[in-house]
Write a structure and sequence with these properties.
Distance between the termini: 57 Å
Helix content: 55-70%
Strand content: 5-15%
Strand order of the largest sheet: 2-1-3-5-4
Number of helices: 23
Largest sheet: 5 strands, mixed
Structural class: mainly alpha
Number of domains: 3
Number of strands: 5
Radius of gyration: 25 Å
Length: 507
């Protein structure tokens, strides 16, 4: 085993170790994770929330026992592969050992550590972006058509993971036109690659068509409820934070791609980042959508700095450049990860507030960062729903109806009673079992709408009670109520069908 290989394995081992050490046992999974895990029970070529790739990973996790370890393993694994691809890109650019270590350090001690703690499509999305940029580098270097075909496959898998990867093409196509690489549009292999990509993504496109393209409804909802609070200046400002310890390396890559002669043939990368960021800014995207852009630039910057800092006194700057990402990670460690108790965060709220970490998607400041608040109260909810369910007569004919996908997913993940909670929210709208007549309903209601529930629903049942609620004041679900309605006077299925039709017609 060579020295380089040993060091690479050490980086990957450290990556896995950190991903698990940065999580406190006081927190549950995050609300999105429950939805993605539940998709394994409803495999399809598309979902209202995401493309199908995540459900395939969830199915593997389910086969492996659905433990916390495996849920967190896969995003860590995708993050480790991102480090590996940056390492290989540096080798392709003839980078030396210092360049390899610098590049791996910059990617390791970055926002990826935070993002790779969550089981969401984002980790694989960043891996897909990095892989596609790496393939582009290989194609420019070799001009072999096989890289176009490999790129088509990688793009298709990335598309089936998250549609966000389309922004990579939005930035790349005009960049090709501005450089000598425009000749690619004259190659038959380029159009064969496009055909391959279309064939691979076609099952999802067909699913979208058959379901009236819910992706557009999802984007509209996102725009109205979340992106409306996005400030374009904040988007650009926050780009500096994701790889704050690597800014010297990233800015060095911009200079090198413009003026460093050995990188002349890769100049389209500098145009690409401009067009991609411009597109994200125009559409008021969330800041983290753009994280996948940067790992490849760390490769270019590491090689350039290694080449200019290898003689005389400048070589003494090498350990400084490696130390910067690590040193800047230390203060980030204390605020960016769910490794502190909620009580600690509240007591030191100013440290979080000045960094904007307490600002939620509603544009307001709260007690905890939104992701942290989304990791609390779920076990409590599932336990209390189980308890209410066991107290019901004819419990086998009970519908567990929730207000949002986090509630339904958490109940389905933690329940000891093999319950299948549903909701009119997100993908759960398509997962109702209407084959049996329900006599009871356990209704999980968000705190803001608790007061009206008894008044609105009681007339349709013989008995109605507010059975319990979520008492963890730090949870985003704090105050969520659990109602028990027994002895249905009507066929609930008809009301469910009406609600589903109303949702679909609105969409």
């Amino acid at each position: 085993m060579t020295k380089k290989t040993t060091i690479l394995i050490a980086f990957i081992g450290l990556k896995f170790l950190l991903q698990f050490l940065l999580l406190s046992s006081e927190y549950d999974l995050q609300r999105d994770e429950y939805l993605h895990l539940d998709q394994a029970n409803h495999l399809a070529w598309g979902y209202l929330s995401v493309p199908p790739f995540t459900s395939w990973t969830s199915y593997i996790i389910q086969l492996l026992g659905k433990s916390f370890f495996w849920i967190k393993f896969f995003p860590a694994f995708y993050g480790a592969l991102t480090i590996y691809l940056v390492w290989k890109a540096i080798e392709e650019l003839d980078g030396n050992l210092f360049a390899l270590i610098l590049g791996a350090t910059c990617v390791l001690f970055s926002a990826l550590l935070r993002l790779n703690t969550l089981y969401q499509p984002n980790s694989f999305d960043i891996l897909s972006w990095t892989f596609l940029y790496f393939i582009l580098l290989k194609f420019i270097k070799t001009d072999h058509a096989k890289w176009l075909y490999i790129g088509a496959c990688v793009f298709a898998i990335g598309f089936l993971n998250k549609y966000n990867i389309v922004f990579l093409l939005i930035g790349l196509l005009p960049s090709l036109l501005l450089t000598e690489h425009r000749k690619i549009f004259l190659k038959t292999s380029f159009y064969v690659a496009i055909f391959i990509a279309l064939i691979l993504v076609s099952p999802n496109l067909v699913w979208q068509y058959e379901n009236n393209f819910p992706v557009f409804h999802h984007l509209k909802q996102l725009s109205e409820t979340q992106l409306v609070n996005v400030n374009r200046f904040d988007f650009l400002k926050n780009q500096l934070l994701f790889f704050i310890g690597s800014l010297i390396v990233i800015f060095a890559s911009f200079y090198a791609l413009l003026f460093y002669k050995p990188f002349n043939k890769y100049r389209l990368f500098i145009y690409s980042i401009f067009f991609t960021l411009a597109a994200f800014t125009y559409f008021k995207a969330k800041d983290y959508y753009a994280i996948g852009i940067y790992p490849i630039y760390i490769a270019f910057g590491s090689v350039y700095l290694a080449n200019i800092l290898k003689e005389g006194w400048t070589k003494y700057l090498q350990p400084v450049l490696i130390a910067v990402p690590l040193l800047l990670f230390i203060p980030i460690y204390h605020v960016a990860f769910p490794n502190k108790s909620p009580e600690y965060i509240v007591q030191h709220s100013e440290n979080y507030k000045k960094l904007g970490l307490l600002r939620w998607e509603d544009g307001k400041d709260h007690l905890l960062p939104q992701d942290f608040a989304d990791m609390l109260g779920w076990k409590e909810l599932a336990l209390k729903v189980d308890s209410v369910y066991l107290s019901l007569p004819n419990k086998n004919n009970t519908l567990i109806l929730c207000d949002n996908y986090g509630q339904a997913g958490a109940i389905n993940y933690y329940t000891k009673q093999k319950l299948r909670a549903v909701s009119f929210n997100a993908d759960y709208m398509n997962w109702f079992d209407l084959s049996k007549k329900y006599e009871n309903v356990v209704r999980v209601k968000e705190a803001e709408e608790v007061n009206e529930e008894l008044q609105e629903t009681s007339p349709f049942f013989q008995n109605s009670i507010l059975a319990d609620s979520i008492t963890n004041k730090y949870a985003r679900e704090y105050g969520t109520a659990i109602f028990a309605f027994t002895g249905a006077k009507i066929d609930i299925r008809e009301r469910i069908k009406d609600e589903i039709n109303e949702k679909k017609n609105y969409r």
